[in-house]
Amino acid sequence: MSALRMAFNELRRITSGTLPKLAVVALSLVPLLYASLYLYANKDPYSNLHNVPAALVVKDKGTKDLNAGKSVADELLKGNKFNWHVVDTLDEADEGVRKGTYIFALTLPEDFSEALTSAEQNKPRQGVLTLTTNDANNYLGSTIANQVVAEVRRAVTAKVSTEAADKFLLGFSTIREETTKAADGATKLADGAAQLRDGVNELDQGQHQLLDGATQAASGAAQLRDGTHQLRSQTAPLPDSTRQLANGARQVANGNETAARQAEEYAQKAQALVGILDQANGDIASRLRALGFSDTQVQNVMNTIGQVRKPVDDANGKVQGASSDLRKLANGAGQVADGAELLASKMPALVDGVGKLDDGATKLADGTAQLRDGEQKAVDGTTKLKDGANQLADGSAQLRDGLNGGVNKIPNADDPTRAAIAQAIGDPVAVKGLSQTKAATYGAGLAPFFLGLATWIGAFVLFLLLRPLSRRALAAGQSSLRVALGGWLPGALLGIVQVLVMFSVVRFVVNIEPSNPLGTFGFLVLMSLTFVAILHALNAAFGAVGKFLGLILLILQLVSAGGTFPWQTIPVPLYPLHYGLPMGYAVDGLRHLMYGGDLGSVGHDALILLAWLAGALALSSVAAYKQRVWTPSKLKPELVL
Question: In the β-sheet with 83-87, what is the strand arrangement from edge to edge?
């Protein structure tokens, strides 16, 4: 008896009545019910999120320039991603989530906008979005809610960061504008400081000339003091030397005239110096006002200069007084010469006058010495003033050069450029999706996994009705391989019918469109033939226990095939199950065929399935060979399913 004959007899046996025929039809529809209904129910759940109820609590009071809470709420309501319900209080939202009225709740607190702009007040803090979830409502609902909040957070962060960056760049423009003004002012300051330096240098030269004159006046006054000392010491013998005194008086008168003229010359020079200082004061004040200094600042500078030149003014007064005294002395000396004849009779008065003259000469010497010392201080002051003016000129020049050099380093973007830079700073990373292959919907993404499971379950239920091995063929001593093929072929044919019905409904009713329809159908047929062979072998080799082993294999493949998450995410101890069992290769091959991936791996997957098919048929052949010998346990098995 051939394998086809055995297969035909088995099919005729299971379709010999109305109920058996209905049973065969039901078995053919099992994969369809499992795969198509599940894929239909989960084809595109994300397109129906607008039916998911969610609570939105907007408590944000906003700020003068920002109302982020309202903006976020408007975007969420306009986006229609969820069935948003705006509620007034957080308690109401919490109660709704607790009772399942809402899947989750999103709360925007009162200080949301204030927190987003807190960095502008140098008190930075985060704006907090409160997401209330309840996994008792739905775990994936909470997961999706977290993704929504993450997207809201990213959008708000990008918007706020972009606005902050725009203000930051605008501040740079303002800084550049103000720095340009400061550079212009520094240029004017440098020019004025240079003029001040030149004026102070002229003042310093005049002060040195005045010091030289004061030094000469002090030297002459010292000489005069020494002369009057001698005159005083020599007036004692004058009563005895009147004539000599008259002659000497004439000489003294001439000398005093010379001294008076020299003193008057010094007095004129001193007065001229004071005039120069007065003119310099006026020039300095005028230049300072021209440089933009205020009247108060100008007055402060002039007061400082006045304190520096006070000794000069005091010395000038003393020089003028000394000059006047010398003039009087010269006139007196002339009168002495003219009245030499009267000197003898009035010698006591003359001696007394000489004493006074000596005292006056001493005072004159002391005054001119003070004038010289004061002028030395004035020279020292003008020297410091000159050094300060030089430093001011150098510093203002450096300030001018630094500001002019730095102004070009400050960003000065125009409005479009500033907006583009702010956008890049606020949201620096964009994602450019390049999908080599892509499932159209969520259901299409799960289809390879559930089509594989449906094919295995379809193969499993076939042997609730089919007998794995023909007892008649075994009793007749038929070839083990022929008996195995005869037991496998009915399931294989029904498996192809299952795949045809399942694929047609999934393709044309559920509208999951494979990239390679013919290849997908052919691969599903190979999967069905392989899975039928495996389950046939288990039933043939182990009987009722084989059905249990088929369920165990299904469970092991559920956890190791990588049908939902990448298989690399399973625990490492489960890796051998993924590499060893056929479901992972079936799912991988279907993915490439349905999504349009590289077909090179499909060949590898098909070879693995063919190897399992061959191995399963070999095991069935071994089981057929062993069952040619009848045993008591075979005639009366302990367990029948």
Answer: 83-87, 53-58, 104-108, 130-133
Pairing of strands 104-108, 53-58: parallel
Q: How far apart are CA 293 and CA 398, in angstroms?
A: 20
Cα 196 to chain centroid, rounded: 48
Task: State which residues of the chain have pLDDT below 70.
Answer: 1-49, 116, 119-123, 125, 136-142, 155-179, 183, 236, 238-239, 241-243, 245, 340, 343-344, 350, 403, 406-415, 417-443, 470, 473-477, 628-641
- Say if CB 451 and CB 459 are below 8 A apart: no
Spatial separation of the C-alpha atoms in residues 229 and 237, rounded to whole Å:
14
Alpha-helical (H) ranges within 66-138 are 68-79, 90-99, 112-116
Q: How far is residue 448's CA from residue 441's CA, in Å, rounded to a whole number? A: 13
Tokens 């907090």 found at: 128
Span 160-189, pLDDT tens digits: 555 555 555 555 566 666 667 776 777 877
54: helix, coil or strand?
strand
- For 80, the enclosing helix (H) or strand (E) is none
- Listing DSSP states for 554-602 in one string gives HHHHHHHS-SSS-GGGS-GGGHHHHHHSSHHHHHHHHHHHHHT--THHH
Is the pTM for the entire model greater than 0.70?
no
Two structure tokens written together for 33: 């019910």
Tens digit of pLDDT for each residue in 548-559? 888 889 888 888
Q: What is the DSSP string of 4-71?
A: HHHHHHHHHHHTSSHHHHHHHHHHHHHHHHHHHHHHHHTS-GGGGGGGSEEEEEE-----SS--HHHH
Sequence-ordered list of residues with C-beta below 8 angstroms from that of 292, at least 6 positions apart, any chain:
185, 188
pLDDT of res. 522: 94
Q: Say which amino acid occupies 481.
A: L
% the chain with pLDDT above 70: 73
- Residue 476 DSSP SS3: coil
Please tell me the predicted confidence (pLDDT) of residue 435.
44
* Backbone φ, ψ for residue 84 (5° rounding): -75, 140
C-alpha 117/C-alpha 112 separation (Å) is 9
| Measured distance between the N- and C-terminal CA atoms of the chain, rounded to whole angstroms | 28
Question: Which two three-digit tokens encode residue 519?
Answer: 């290849």
Look at residue 85 and give its three-state secondary structure.
strand
pLDDT at res. 537 = 92
Cα–Cα distance, 179 to 186 (Å, whole number): 10
- Structure-block tokens of residue 429: 């990373």
Scan for tokens 């007196």, then name that residue: 332
What span, in angstroms and rounded, lies between the C-alpha atoms of 188 and 191?
5
pLDDT at 387: 82
The two structure tokens encoding residue 158:
């990008």
From the list 603, 527, 366, 493, the residue with the least C-alpha distance to 27 is 493
Cβ-based burial of 571 (10 A; exposed 0-12, middle 13-18, buried ≥19): exposed
Closest of 395, 405, 402 to residue 193, by C-alpha? 395
